[in-house]
Amino acid sequence: MSQQFPYTYYSCSCVDTPTSLLPLSRKSVEARSSSDEEETTFDPRSSRANFSLYPLEHLLYCTECHQMRCSRCTTEEVLCWYCPSCLFEVPSSTVRSEGNRCTRSCYNCPICTSFLTVNLLDAPTEAQRDAEQPPGPFILSCSYCNWTSLDIGIKFDKANNITGQLQRVRNGGIIVPTPKERENQAERLLRKQPNHEEEEEVKSPLEETPAAQAPPDADDFFSNLNSFYKSQLADTETSAGPAEFNVHSPSSIQRLLNLYSTGKKTKRGKPKPMRESLTTAEGLQEYSSSSEEELIHRLATSGWEATTSPSQRSFQERHPPRFTSDLRPTATLLRTKRSKRCKTCRTLLSRPEPKVNTTRYKIKVLALNNIPKVSIRSLNTTPQSLLTDLVTISSSMQQKEYTTLHPLMPYQFLLTLTNPLFDPIKVTLATPTTTPGRVQTRVTILCPQFDVGANTDVWDDALNSTSSQNNPKRKSAAPGLSVASPPDNSDGKQAEAGKIWDKGRNWTSVIVEVVPGVLPGTPAFVGEGGEVREDEGVVECPVFVKVEYESEGLGAGETPERVRMVGEGKEKREVAFWCVLGVGKIVG
Amino acid sequence: MATRPTATRKTAKGEYIETDSGNKVSRKANISGTPNITLGGKTVIMADVHLRGDLTRPKAATPDPKGAKQSSTSISIGRCTVVSTGTVIRPPGRMSRGVYTYYPMKIGDNVFVGPNCVIQAASISSHVHISENCVLQPLCVIKENVKILPHTVVPANMVVPPNSVVGGRPGRIVGEVGEGYGVSVGAVAGGSGEGWVEGGDLRELVRIIK
Ligand SMILES: [Zn+2]
Ligand SMILES: [Zn+2]
Ligand SMILES: [Zn+2]
Ligand SMILES: [Zn+2]
């Protein structure tokens, strides 16, 4: 899926683009020296640009710093955790003890990541159909790819508490103790033998369970090693020694165990070197050539289909398996609602209501409401054709206006600035004459300096439009929106340098002329040839926008060089930023 | 809008039939089971849209006055919602107690459904933007302020939480919409060139469709 044209991205002020960080390959230096005189021209193709360009609706605004704020220059605080499937809020204490996954019955398909549903294995009989709780067995099944838990040999007796049931069953239906039970067993063993000299007597919790016959899996190794290290730490608790910071030292192992244990704080072990695990019961994973051979045999017989893909492996909660038959359904990851603060001054910029199902905000300071909106569209598109693009079947025809730019042909675009502020603004636009990079597209803004009216109350506008309804020359409420009046360019209007195209209540449109450059690899291309690199045909024009206005003094936190008193309690303000206009794609 | 009576009269002769509450239904739309469909007003149904109002819950064998009332509506669409060309809206169905049963579908206000979609969701909340060529499989639930990217297949039974962006086949939550999603500058008539934004108030869009 390619980007939809046209688009405007704003460069957040947190990313300075010093010249040293622009691509310094010889070619781009040549290109730049011939084109832009200003050293700080924003290059939308620089690798840093990716991290500072945002659509306007993703940007916040700090009223203290008078700067837009993106995800890089804000800090986040989690307000609440919730499961995206069952939409239940999870208390943060539960998140700390149980982890960041849903502990209800929300599971995702290990094959395709879709949500799994709990279904009856067999179609219910006539008698069962009317029963309140149909008898099992139940399975987890994916309606997208038709995977079911039967594929890994797991059935459930009850339709609820899938998490609890899954914990005690291994793939193939082997019943195993839950992690909690294993831990308890290990602790019981420790208490029974507080000073066990004979390591051979330490029994693995596994040996007392029916799963003993099955080969131990990764979970068993983990719990064995866990209990072994705990017993070792218990041994060393009494003896004292010098602190050591190697892998085998008790302190580092204690740290490691604390990482994996859930909330239980044990006293820091006295430092003394410990021995490593020696047997399988102690969690030692032995290399055996037979198991390797078995793996190879399995690969050879079951083939590509039976192996897992990298994305499937990384989607697992732990222990990425080689074969699809070893996959486990994954509990749904929780999501969060977060508030955002300015990184510089800690001002709260957005704070959603912490309820899962509401989309309301307690605080939300948007860039949208504080800096002008820059939008661009082809001059040839009428509102009606925009609409047709949006709602008709011919999506292949869509975008044609933008995706078939021919090199060296002049195209005219309509650049519109909309003012969200309640003060009129003075706008100055600047753009490098040619776009940075190998494909040099010439960009000319016919009228780089103009005023935009204030954003008055909506009702004022509505009243004005009613009173002036009979006036054929009345300014439309939105550019190109006045369907009743003839389309913009049907009256033979010509673009003129130094003159604005059209204006309304709080918006002004100017013409931008774009002459797409020549793609490398075509005969007309000047300079070092070669293949067309990815997205090199995309025309992105960097535009510098400077906005000046006088506003009621707000006082606090002003930077003196930006704001200067103009008397009558008004302040002169200046906002400046780079944005990138994606106007289309060049055809070769 | 009350201030534009001329526009209303014009549309009556055009492609759209406008109802008293301002719904615009294309003459080329394909609507089955009309009595089972409710439109909230100022809602647009475009050409080649197929509304399957005929797929209703089967009449209960035991007479249950409450149940009978509920089953009468199979598709209910809110205000200022736009259903684009070629889209099929089909109430979802599944096996329930041994019988294949259709469930009523509810679509909220200011929902945009792009062209060529197949919608079988259980419910779509308000301010949802569905791009072109999407499939919403049976009984998925789309919460408020969600954007569905083009060519997405939302798997059956999936719940899409508020403020998320969904994409892919099968659809996954690929991100969150920005804080400014659905906010237009200067309310009704922003200078965006369109006067409406994705996820925002669609009144302006509805107005220019004729
Ligand atoms: Zn930033
Ligand atoms: Zn859940
Ligand atoms: Zn699946
Ligand atoms: Zn700040």
Describe this structure in words.
The complex is a heterodimer of chains A (588) and B (210). Chain A is of the alpha+beta class and 588 residues long. Among the domains of chain A are: 101-228 and 293-333, no CATH class; 370-487 and 496-585, no CATH class. Helices cover 19% and strands 22% of the residues of chain A. Chain A has 12 helices and 25 strands. In chain A, strand 13 (335-342) and strand 14 (348-352) form a beta hairpin. Chain A is elongated, with a radius of gyration of 33 Å. Chain B has 210 residues and is mainly beta. Chain B contains 3 helices and 23 strands. Chain B has helices at residues 5-13, 65-70, 203-208; strands spanning 16-18, 24-26, 30-32, 37-39, 44-45, 50-52, 75-77, 82-83, 88-89, 93-96, 99-102, 105-107, 112-113, 118-119, 123-124, 129-130, 135-136, 141-142, 147-148, 153-154, 159-160, 164-167, 172-176. In chain B, the strands form 4 sheets. In chain B, strands 1-2-5-8-13-16-19-22-23 form a 9-stranded mixed beta sheet. A 6-stranded parallel beta sheet of chain B has the order 3-6-9-14-17-20, with no helix packed on it. The relative contact order of chain B is 0.12. The interface between A and B is large, with 75 and 62 residues. The complex binds zinc ion (4 copies). Chain B: Residues 1-21 are annotated as: Disordered. Chain B: This is Dynactin subunit 5. Chain B: Pfam families: DCTN5 (PF21711).
